[in-house]
Specification:
The protein is built from nine helices and twelve strands. The chain is an alpha/beta fold and 265 residues long. The chain has two domains: 150 residues, Rossmann fold (3-Layer(aba) Sandwich); 106 residues, Dihydrodipicolinate Reductase, domain 2. The strands form two sheets. A seven-stranded parallel beta sheet has the order 3-2-1-4-5-6-12, with helices on both faces. A five-stranded mixed beta sheet has the order 8-9-7-10-11.
């Protein structure tokens, strides 16, 4: 039995993680955490999962042993919880997006003490998309223009999405481009001819879209589009749970969903 803590338990993702942990015979939820001042502090976590009384109260701090903590909160909270996990020897899965380079480095520092898995998207399909896009980028060469379009619900706080940024990173790694030099975020005004190496990222926020990502490879006379559409948040939740099972007994270090899915780099 793997003992699980969820940080950000009242969020859209956190609540579904808690719900599916209860359904998994290999897992046991031992704590559900939320930020100070949240209106659900002190309530049974079943009040947000829709599963009835569970005996697990939503708290600001945990007082139970755990094997893995799954974090879907905020960048600041993710870093703070990583430090706590390092002190308590709890493996960490971070699905929180919007982490900046400094925050990534802090979590990487804590991975010297515990196993850490950080992924902007834990969907199996999206991680397949990462690999497919990298392969396609190598194959088409620099005569094809590459654009990334991501669409999410109106409540998403960061833009572009962590998944879109990871797609751009995979393209850069495959084609010797540079994120800080070749990636642009939307366009406005008279931009002139499109530079050959440029990668455009465009963020759309609309309604209740869970997450759509399309990479467009365009040349003179033809176009390739590779698209992933998430139909339900449970896609990401099941990936996070799979990651938690994978990392539970792993030695300290930084891990990725490629490790979980045994994908070739």
């Amino acid at each position: 039995m793997i003992e699980i803590v969820v940080n950000g338990a009242c969020g859209r993702m956190g609540a579904r993680i808690a719900a599916l942990v209860f359904e998994d015979p290999e897992l046991k939820l031992v704590a559900a955490l939320e930020r100070s001042g949240h209106r659900s502090i002190g309530k049974d976590v079943g009040s947000v999962t829709g599963g009835g009384e569970t005996g697990i109260k939503i708290t600001m701090a945990m007082n139970a042993h755990a094997d893995v903590l799954i974090d879907f909160s905020s960048p600041e909270s993710a870093v703070a919880i990583a430090e706590y996990c390092a002190r308590q020897n709890i493996a960490l899965v971070v699905g929180t997006t919007g982490l900046n380079a400094q925050q990534h480095e802090k979590i990487k520092h804590f991975s010297r003490q515990i196993a850490c898995l950080v992924s902007p998207n834990m969907s199996v399909g999206v991680n397949a998309l990462f690999n497919l896009v990298a392969q396609a980028s190598k194959m088409v060469g620099k005569e094809f223009d590459i654009e990334i379009i991501e669409t999410h619900h109106r409540f998403k706080k960061d833009a572009p999405s962590g998944t879109a940024l990871r797609l751009a990173e995979k393209i850069c790694e495959a084609t010797d481009r540079k994120m800080d030099k070749d990636v642009v975020y939307g366009r406005n005004g008279i931009t002139g001819d499109r530079p050959m190496n440029q990668i455009g990222i465009h963020a759309v926020r609309s309604g209740d879209v869970i997450g759509d990502h399309t990479v467009v490879f365009g040349s003179l006379g033809e176009r390739i589009e590779i698209t992933h559409k998430a139909h339900t948040r449970d896609t990401f939740v099941r990936g996070a749970i799979r990651a938690a099972k994978f990392i539970a007994k792993k030695p300290p270090g930084m891990y990725s969903m490629s490790d979980v899915l045994q994908m070739q780099p």
